[in-house]
Each structure stands twice: as C-alpha cells, then as structure tokens.
Specification:
- This protein is mostly beta strands.
- About 0% of the residues lie in helices and about 50% in strands.
- The strands form seven sheets. It has a six-stranded antiparallel beta sheet, with no helix packed on it. Strands 15, 16, 17, 18, 19 and 20 form a six-stranded antiparallel beta sheet that branches.
- Strand 4 and strand 5 form a beta hairpin.
- It is globular and about 55 Å long.
C-alpha cells in the first residue's frame, strides 16, 4: 500500500533492506531545496522542516508510532536553500533547535517535548547578542560524554569565522569552548567544512576538514586543510604540529594547495577513516585536461600522500553565487574491512566505489536505489530525495529510518516558476531483507 504522494510501497526494496512502514509527517515546503532533519533520541523520533505555509515546524513521535505531535515556531522560510535547521538534545533531554538563518541574527529555541503545556523558550543570545547577527549553517553534535556542542558560521561567504560553543547542563547556558572562533577568516575569506565536522573519529579524536573560499563566487574555493584535537581546544596538523588558535590561512594545516578556479567546491569535501584509523580526505578537482576527478589525501607516517582515484571524462565548471545544482556529489565515506567505500553521483548516475587499504579501486557498481545521493527528476519539476536518520542516543532498533521528500534542484536561491509549493514528507522504516 502506498501513501499519497509517495512513490514507494510497503514490501518494496529500499537501499539494502525492505520497506516495513511509511508514515506521512505532513506537507513540507518543496519550492526551495532545504533538507529536513530526522533525529532519533532514545525511543523517540523528531523531524524538523518547513511546512506548506513556510513555517519552521518540529514534529515528534515514539519510534514507529502513527501520531505526530506538531509544534510551529515563529519563523518563516524564504527562497533561500541555506536556511538549514539543526537539532540536538542536551543531557536533560531538552531539544535544542536552530534554523532559518543565512548571515542573519540568531534563531534558537529550547523545547521540552515531554510537556505540551510548556511554551517554547526562545534563546536571545548564545554568548554575545552583538556578535550573533550573521549566523549560517547551525549544527548540533553530541560529544562522547553526551554534551551538546553547537557550531555555526559567523559572517558571510568569503568573510566569516567558524565558531564552536558547548552547553553547560548544570548552569543551563552555552559557554565558549575557547576564546574567539575556532577558524578565523580574517575578514577576507571563510572556511567551509565537511558538513559533518567536527567529526569524532574511531581514534577518539575530533577531526576537521575544510576548504577556504575568498568570495561568494564558488570558483574562489581553494586549499584542502585538516586539523585534529582531543578536546576541541588544542589543535594540531596531520603532521602532528600544534596549530595556533584561532586557525587561520597558512601552511600549517594545508593538505593540498588547490588553487581557485580549479574545480574545488565546498560541499564536496569529505572526511573518512581507513581501517587502521588514518583519516583520509576525499574531494574533486580538475586534472590537467580540465576533467573533474576524485582525489584522496591521507597522512602516511610523516607525509601526506595525494592520489588521483578516478579517470573520468567529466567536465563541470564550479562558479557563480547562490545554491548550485551540483553535477557531482560525494557521499559520506564508509570504513570497510577491505578499505573504504563511497558513493558518488555524476549528474543523475550514482556509483558505489570500493577502495582497498592502499586506496586502489577494487570495484565499481551502481549504488543501491534509495540511497542518500539518489534523486529522480519528476515531471512537475521537483526531485525525489531522501535523508537518513541521525542517531543521538537511540534505543536498540533493528529498523533503519529515512526521510522521503521532494524539492526543486539548486536554483541559486531564485524563486522558481510553476512548481508545486509543497509535497508530502514521509518517514520510511526498513528492516532486513
């Protein structure tokens, strides 16, 4: 049986499993490409999205339940795909929400999902309201001890800093991890990080991977950089050298000195880990003939080894402002017993690449349908998309959960014509095939 607006049905194959349930959360905004977020915490699921009226909405339920509790926040989305929504839980189980910001003042709420009678608490400032007027890319991270960490960019594209704060559960307020931003653009550039960074690696360290961008034009992206830390305060390079704070543009953290206008872009810089825990960077840049290629950089002993991994005949000029319609998309690298696996999309074709421990290509095959990079263009101008659930501290659950939704492709943040303004947002539960 298929729900209205859903192209899949219970019993059909999805990724490496079989669909066991489909449940519509509500109608979500579709004329701008802002991804929803699905977060699992203990026995609950929480979804953030912009509804059909463009209102920032939080919905929650017990895992596998049929009824969603909806809360509308006092925030309305425009035609700007940068207005992501971040979700995270503190140690007391309170939900923190930050979203609908693109170089704009802080919008942050704390919600007690267990009590419908309690009003939503809007946070006016993290630390200093005068320094929180140009926020973008909010993200919450759970540390190894369960602490809630919040990261964001302060500034604008080509002129911004990367900031990290931590929630103090006993005092119920945010505190600085250290003085000043973690990465400082110096008023001339800003760092674009792997969208999952800082990443807590299998070695117990925090890892950062980023590029610099000197202006709002995507072609000004350059330079692969890396740093790691045990406490988010003291950082060192891949060679083990201590880095000054805040981290700025210099050769200390440099991994690959890719020049501007050489095919590098900020959304396709991914950090993975080899089976022996060595961090490895995956990214694309042009080769000498002008074709885009997949590259890796991995620290081996005291040196960084850079390899061209593929030999594509594929050109894509990365340039312009606003949200790009990405012709290449690199998925999250997954560690395997044999090496490293990664899905990559070229245009609409998604391939799964398996590399051995020497980063030599072992196999190439079409990625499983329904994966995070899969997308199919519809006759109404929208693209079917999916996002995997993030686990904050989930109970044991044999099912794997995804969000299914549809939205326009990247349209450089211009209002599109003649496309549906909303589309059903559904949660798909899967079980082993």
């Amino acid at each position: 049986m298929t729900e209205p607006g859903i192209i899949y049905g219970v019993g059909e194959h999805w990724v490496n499993a079989v669909i066991s349930s489909i449940n519509v959360v509500g109608a979500a905004l579709s004329d701008v490409a802002i991804p929803p977020t699905l977060l699992q915490y203990k026995n609950s699921q929480t979804v953030s999205y912009y509804d059909a009226d463009r209102t920032l909405t939080i919905a929650d339920r017990n895992i596998g339940g049929l009824v969603w509790n909806h809360r509308k926040l006092d925030s309305s989305a425009k035609w700007d795909s940068h207005n992501y929504i971040g979700l995270g839980f503190d140690k007391s189980g309170q939900l923190h929400v930050a979203g609908n910001m693109h170089a704009s003042p802080l919008q942050y709420w704390i919600i007690d999902l267990s009590n419908e009678e309690i009003r939503l608490a809007k946070v006016n400032a993290l630390l200093d309201p005068q320094a929180e007027l140009r926020i973008t890319y909010p993200r919450f991270i759970r540390s190894s001890d369960g602490s809630l960490i919040f990261t964001y960019r302060n500034g604008s594209s080509g002129d911004g800093d990367f900031v990290v704060v931590i929630w103090d559960d006993s005092e119920r307020r945010n505190k600085r991890v250290s003085e000043g931003p973690l990465i400082d653009g110096g008023g001339k550039r800003n760092a674009y990080l792997d969208s999952n960074a800082p990443i807590l690696g299998p070695d117990g360290l925090w890892h950062l991977l980023w590029v610099w961008r000197d202006s709002p034009d995507a072609e000004s992206t350059h330079s692969i950089n890396y740093a790691c830390s045990h406490d988010l305060v003291a950082w060192r390079s891949g060679h083990g050298r201590p880095l000054n704070r805040p981290i700025a543009l210099n050769n200390q953290s440099l991994v690959d000195p890719v020049s501007p206008s050489h095919g590098l872009t900020n959304n396709n810089v991914r950090l993975g880990f080899m089976p022996d825990h060595r961090p490895v960077a995956l990214y694309h840049k042009r080769d000498g003939s002008g074709s885009q290629q997949l590259w890796s950089a991995v620290f081996e002993d005291s040196s960084c080894v850079i390899r061209q991994l593929m030999n594509w005949n594929f050109a894509w000029d990365v340039n312009g402002q606003g949200s790009l319609d990405f012709k290449i998309e690199i998925g999250v690298p997954l560690t395997t017993t044999r090496g490293l696996s990664v899905d990559v999309r070229l245009n609409e074709e998604v391939q799964a690449y398996l590399f051995d421990t020497n980063l030599l290509l072992v196999s190439t095959e079409p990625a499983v349908p329904g994966g995070p990079l899969s997308r199919s263009r519809r006759s109404d101008g929208l693209i079917d998309r999916c996002e995997a659930a993030r686990g904050w501290s989930p109970e044991d659950d044999s099912r794997v959960w995804f969000i299914s939704y549809a939205s326009v492709p990247g349209q450089r943040d211009q209002r599109p014509n003649e496309v549906p303004t909303s589309h059903p947002l559904s949660i798909i539960g899967t079980s082993g095939s």
